[in-house]
Amino acid sequence: MKSLLLNTLLAICCMTSSYLISGSKAQAEDWGCLVILCLSNPGGPTQYDECRPPIQKLWRELARGHSFPTCSGVGFHSSRPGYEPYYCDAGYRLRGGDGSRGGQVICAPTSPQPVSNALCSNDDGTHNNSVLSPRWERQDGRRQCVGYPIMRPNVRSQPHYIDVTIDGAATQRVWY
């Protein structure tokens, strides 16, 4: 029955890696091999019903601090579990701590952006909490106030991750 499950998943997921096709290397009854198979699915590790129980078990085990399961005969590597609760939109990067010690985490653009001239003209010594490092720059022969407008970071619904490399293919980050 489990071999049928593995073959069905292989057909559905269109996996091409030789270790998944070779029944002598990966056995369906091996939880670690099933986890790797499900993580290899381009549609996501829980796209198919058959993958949900082993992947949910994986998340529970990792959350308890257990190591990633193994699959004999497979060139496989996983990182230690990581935690990144925040992320920024494209063109922005996180600045500050991770927020766990009360430090403020913000998103700032990767390059200076035009901002209100009032931010560069502020000579009364007050600080602006919405733009970092406002300054005058010459652009197209005229003065322009530029800075790094900050925004709040997005909060991940699944902040834990592992990085998985299977048979030397590109490393994939899996969030849980």
What's this model, at a glance?
This protein has 2 domains: 2-84 and 161-175, no CATH class; 92-154, no CATH class.
Helix content: 10-25%
- Report strand %: 25-35%
Radius of gyration: 24 Å
* Distance N to C terminus: 28 Å
- The 3D shape can be described as elongated
Round the mean pLDDT to the nearest integer and report it: 77
| Total domain modules | 2
Largest sheet, strands/sense/barrel: 4 strands, antiparallel
Overview of the structural elements:
It is a single chain. With 176 residues, the chain is of the alpha+beta class. It folds into two domains: 2-84 and 161-175, no CATH class; 92-154, no CATH class. The chain has five helices and eleven strands. The strands form four sheets. Strands 1, 2, 10 and 11 form a four-stranded antiparallel β-sheet that branches. Strands 6-8-7 form a three-stranded antiparallel β-sheet. A hairpin with a 2-residue loop joins β7 and β8. It starts with a helix and ends with a strand. Mean pLDDT is 77; it is low at 1-28.
Which descriptors would you attach to this protein?
2 domains; 28% strand; alpha+beta; 176 residues; 3-stranded antiparallel beta sheet; 5 helices; 11 strands
